[in-house]
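User: Show me a protein chain along with its predicted structure.
Assistant: Here is one chain, sequence first, then structure tokens.
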Amino acid sequence: MIRFKRLLLYLIIAILTGLGHIAIRLVPFKTLIRFMTNVDEVETEVMTKKQTNRLKSVALILNRVNRHVFWRVKCYEQALVALFFARLLGINMMIFFGLLKDENGELLAHTWTEAGDMYITGGENAHAFSVVYKRGYRKNKNRLGYSFGDTRV
């Protein structure tokens, strides 16, 4: 049963990376990021063990899926899929966009995501890049904008 669940997750992630690749090509950057995120900054939160394990599974599969699909699965596509799963699992997550000038003077771009105190995607070389833009997804416990104790009409 665990093998079937992992295979199903792999298939879902492969499909989502394909959709992410298409979205990157068709949807303007600002529109896509505003759709996937809802705040400028997110407070770090302690994740449950279950949430941590689920995000680690997603991250592991995201790192492997590019070998088995014919479309591009780079850092930006991976970050979009990670944001999708953060929304699905109700986990606060930040997405970062960074730039780096290499030895030849060319600009390199990189995208990575963080949830809690761990990198989900793109963290292995994130420290080398200067952050130029960041956004976050914060779970909405209170979708109406007020608490149950609020008596405003």
